[in-house]
Amino acid sequence: MERNVTLDYFKVFLSILVITIHIGPLSATYPLLNWLISQGIARIAVPCFFIINGYYLAKKIDNPKALKKYIRHLLIIYA
Q1: d(Cα 62, Cα 31) in Å, to the nearest integer?
Q2: pLDDT for 29-75, tens place per residue?
Q3: C-alpha–C-alpha distance, residues 23 and 26, integer Å
Q4: Contact by Cβ (8 Å): 33, 26
Q5: pLDDT given at position 1
Q6: Residue 18 carries which DSSP code?
Q7: Burial of residue 20, with CB atoms counted within 10 A of its CB: 0-12 exposed, 13-18 middle, 19 or more buried
Q8: How many structural domains does the chain have?
Q9: Residue 22 pLDDT more than 80?
C-alpha cells in the first residue's frame, strides 16, 4: 500500500488538535472560545485517528504474511 501524504498532513493537524485539548490555549482570555475549541472541535481528533488507522489495518488483516510483519514491527517499536 502506498503512503498517502494528504493523510499524513491531516494526522499532523489532528495531533495539534489533541494538544489543544490538553493545554486550553485561550482559557484565561476567552473562556467560551476555549471551551468551543477544546471541548468541541478538537474532540474529533481521536476518533479520526482510530478511523484512519483502522482503514490501514483492515487491509493487513486479510493477508496473514503482512499481518505478521505488521505485528513484528509494532513489537519492535514498543520494545
Answers
A1: 48
A2: 788 888 888 888 888 998 998 898 888 888 888 888 988 988 898 89
A3: 9
A4: yes
A5: 62
A6: H
A7: middle
A8: 1
A9: yes
Here the cell at position 67 is: 499481518
How many whole angstroms separate alpha carbon 77 and alpha carbon 9? 22
| Domain enclosing residue 67, as ranges | 5-78
User: Which phi-psi region, left, alpha or beta, contains residue 24 (left: φ > 0; alpha: ψ -120 to 50)?
Assistant: left
Q: What is the mean pLDDT of residues 11-22?
A: 88
- pTM here is 0.69
CA distance 38 to 21: 5
Alpha helices in the chain (DSSP H): 5-23, 31-39, 45-61, 64-78
Query: What integer pLDDT is reported at residue 48 of this predicted model?
Result: 92
The vertex-76 CA angle with 72 and 79, nearest 5°, equals 130
pLDDT > 80? residue 2: no
